[in-house]
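Exercise 7.
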Amino acid sequence: MRKRRIITIAALGAAASLTLAGCASDGAGGTTEFGGGSGASGGGDKGTITLGFLPSWTDGLSTAYLLQDQLEKIGYSVEMQTLTEAGPLYTGLAQGDVDVFPSAWPEITHAEYMATYGDSIEDLGTYYDNAKLTIAVPEYTDIDSIDELAAASDRFDGKIYGIEPGAGLTGQTQKMMPEYGLDSSYELVTSSTAAMLTELKAATEKQEDIVVTLWRPFWANDAFPVKDLEDPKGAMGEAEGLHFLGTEGFSEEYPEAAELISQIMLDDAQYGSLEDLVVNEYGEGREAEAVDAWLDEHGSEFDWVVS
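Solution. The predicted structure, written as tokens, is:
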């Protein structure tokens, strides 16, 4: 029941070795240093804008290359700075080492970062307004709500497979578990996004039961036969927006870039198409081609697109 061609786990693992839900690690113990980005491109004379993103967070990966394309077309040079953790990324944004974070979760998932760094960060706009953190099981598993998990721990070997230990999604899951009485019967297994997807892939291929932490928007929701569990207590948090964040003073220094960025808004179909093309159809090293293909398909739907 896979609706899209699944990115290879090996390729995702390579991306994860550079890095995310949704989604996101908080940077505890991160060792990334600035100044060693993945390279610059373009020859614009309006200045250089550095986009900071985590390659395994495919929302930011996709929008980073979309922004690179559009900003270069209006005369900016763009540097792509890959990082391994969200903490250093927010720090770099606040300090001006990064100009734009192209897919942040500042309302709920990364609220603690905003409380720490928000005074030095500029919100450039929301491009997607229905992002959410989820607990998911395979479609064939006859459980539909988180509150059914406590009585079924043996079916899942008492494990919920998560992503990076410091992720915002991980922290929210840890808060959720006692709300549903899962803290005594389940272990939250954390490692990496790639490792979680490896477990999910293996289980669904064998038609076995598994519980994982996921988020939306994320290509894996369509690539694997999974369903979100209902969350009657709202313990995984409400839906939130995905934002473009800039370093303080970005709009003043780069007014044309800020104006373009503020106009970007994607619906589910538009975002899903962008992520699928960048991550799955074209893949690593061909992101620019993927953006070109997406613009050919969807560019006429927007007033802000620069040809």
